[in-house]
Amino acid sequence: MLRGGSVKSIYELHGEGKSIRQIARLLQVSRNSVRKYLRAPGIPVAKSRPGRARVLEPYEGHLRQRLSEGVENAVVLLREIRALGYQGGYSTVKAYLQPLRRAREEPLTTRYETEPGEQAQVDLGCFRYHSADGKMRRVWAFVMVLSWSRAIYVEFLPQVDTATFIHCHLNAMEHFGGMVERYLYDNTKLVVLGREADGEVQFNARFLDFGLRLGFTITLCKPYRAQTKGRVESGVKYVRHNFWPSARFTDVADLNQQARTWCAAVADVRVHGTTFEQPAVRLEQERLVLRALPGRERLLPFLREERIVGRDNYVRWERACYGVPGNWAHKSVQVQANEEIVEIWDGSQRLAVHPRASRPGQHLKALGQWALVTAHSNPPSREALAYELPTVEVERRPLSFYEPTGRGW
Question: Tens digit of pLDDT for each residue in 65-75?
Answer without folding.
Answer: 988 888 888 88
